[in-house]
Amino acid sequence: MPGTLTRLAALAIGLSFALAACGPEREGGGAAMTGAAPTLDFEAISAMLIGRMDLQPGERVLLVGQPGSRWDAIVPLLRERVAAAGAVDLGAVDVTGEVLPGTGPSEFAAALGTAPEGWVEPLATVDVAVKLPGAVPSPELPADVYRALQDVLRGGSGRTVHFHWAGATSFGMEELPADGRVDALYQAAVLDTDYEALTGLLAAFEAALRSGPVRVTTPAGTDISFEVGDRPVTRQDGDASAMRAALARNLIDREVELPAGAVRVSPLLETVEGRIAFPPAEWGGERAEGLVLRFEGGRVVDVEADAGRGGVIGEMEAAGEAGRTFRELAVGFNSLLAIPAGEQWIPYYGYGDAVVRLSLGDNTELGGSVGGGYVRWNFFTDATVSVGGEVWVEGGRLIGER
What global pTM score does this model have? Predict the structure, then answer.
């Protein structure tokens, strides 16, 4: 099949880059296996970020960071490159709207202030915002710049780069801090990905998704199927250009993730049927084991569990409709984000190579109509994904990687 040949060619290119990234040319390239701390190349990373934005003269660029972060050193480099591209440097703020200490003068950042009711209008003038590691929504704040930017994006204005480097995810769905292994893997993925090949691969998968029913199975008993139809499909291929943002159909089309590599879609809810068998994890304050949820028409209709069933039901009931709604399928396609051999952590952003995410909850950022704010991420490292009868992922490996 022509589609299969294109896919295998793209995978071969990606694998060649993966092998190169493990060689001596990249400082710290082998640290993902050894745990040694690499030296982050902020010059190269900042250049790649600016390149992925494809900045045009006059575009207005805002940085959002975290005070006292180890990423402070990249802020002046990004600002210099923004100016060199002929774009407008708006400065750097944290999620409270405060000017980041030591980042230099910025009339825009100073004028933004810390009054959330005054944020929307100035943020609507931002063409691209870069969310640096650590710039995340804060549950302690009634409002923050991160969420205010999302409100602007929902209105169809601008774009953001989610420069996610804060950590990874354990097989038990626990957040892990970034260490030397994570740094090495993410740096290689940002700098060495063949973005053209990745774009072709993700586009081929999107075309397949629209051509026939999707089925996801796992050895533990997951067997769920659905159709995508004309639903928005987000290809996280690292393209943060204005041209790409102009084609956005939902919020996350405007939120470009780096490292890149995932395809995400909220399918036609009425077509979602089957079962998802979850790995052991905490639900509602209890450890749930042997958990299986059965879906009809995109909603949970039955809950089975060997332990922790009460916690699962409690969490769902507290979340309302979103707690029982199938949210999305996400599949990782970047071979540079493969789970390191012998280790049990998932490179979160980009979701790892052939890692599958089957999530529950609010699907509005994906173009759906179920709100409520609740989202439950669930990763599967051994899934098989077929589309229209053609297998794309088998047992946690992309077809063509063997």
Answer: 0.88
